[in-house]
Design goal:
The chain is α+β, with helices and mostly antiparallel strands. It has one domain: Alpha-Beta Barrel (ADP-ribosylation fold). The chain is 17% helix and 26% strand. A 3-stranded antiparallel beta sheet has the order 1-4-8. A 3-stranded antiparallel beta sheet has the order 3-6-5. A two-stranded antiparallel ribbon has the order 2-7.
């Protein structure tokens, strides 16, 4: 991987969890391999104008609905304080949940940790221990 994600202490990640400043984004590991561009840009940024994110409490909703059984996934842990674009909580699909959407590319330095996100044997996902409050 060109460039690297800083290793964060459990204290920093815990602080972001406690203050509701942690955004999570599920993607394929290969999507973050080339960091020659200054920021992470998901396909949805071009298609919909924003990057889909979740809070730790919401993560399993899209994980199990959209990614069930898929491997090679990672979770980008994003410090919302370091994102220079609007973050709007909205329910675009009538799901009853207000998900955070980032209206711009996510700078690499705002991604404080990348966690592997393998499925369970039945294809479902569990919240990684690191993200449990």
């Amino acid at each position: 991987m060109k460039g690297s994600t800083p290793k964060v202490t459990s204290r920093l990640l815990g602080s972001l969890l406690e203050t509701n400043r942690l955004l999570l984004h599920i993607t394929r590991a290969r999507a973050i391999e080339d960091r020659t561009m200054g920021a992470y840009q998901a396909g949805s940024l071009q298609e919909e104008g924003f990057i889909h994110c979740s809070t730790p409490e919401q993560l399993l909703i899209p994980a199990n609905a959209l990614f069930r059984g898929q491997s090679d996934l990672v979770i980008l842990c994003i410090d919302a304080r370091q994102v220079p674009h609007p973050i709007i909580y909205e329910d675009c699909y009538g799901s009853g949940h207000q998900f955070p959407h980032v209206y711009g590319a996510v700078p690499w330095e705002s991604i404080v940790q990348v966690l592997p996100f393998p499925p369970e044997e039945d294809g479902s996902f569990l919240l990684p221990k690191t993200l449990r409050g």
